[in-house]
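Practice problem: predict the structure.
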Amino acid sequence: MRALRNLRVAASSALVVVLLPVLASCSSDDDDPVGASDPLVGTWTATSFQAFGQDFIADGMALSITVNANDTYAISVTNDLIGVCDPQTSCTETGTYSSSATQITLDPGPDATTLNYSIQGNTMTLTGSIDAVPVTIVLTRA
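Answer:
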């Protein structure tokens, strides 16, 4: 039980660190002040969140990320299954982000997380490690 709790705590920290950068993957280096041409800007809803050999979205957790043109993001979690919102079951995390063509760095303060991302049509996939835990997050543009 202790190992599972430690894993969930690590996963929740990783989720916040991973999801925030991924969902907030708009480039702060973008010359477009309104972000109209940035494919990262918008609201993304997770269809899969794989960590620890488990899909937390399939198990009932909900996650959405709103990436804004002003280099800020907000991640909302409902029915938290990994301890991100501990002790609540729902929460919203906010912060700033920066991105390149293939990576996004989410900074909720004090620690930032960098994830790899790719966008195909209305689907964004984030991959990387959060607190040394490999994660894959698949999101669909809302």
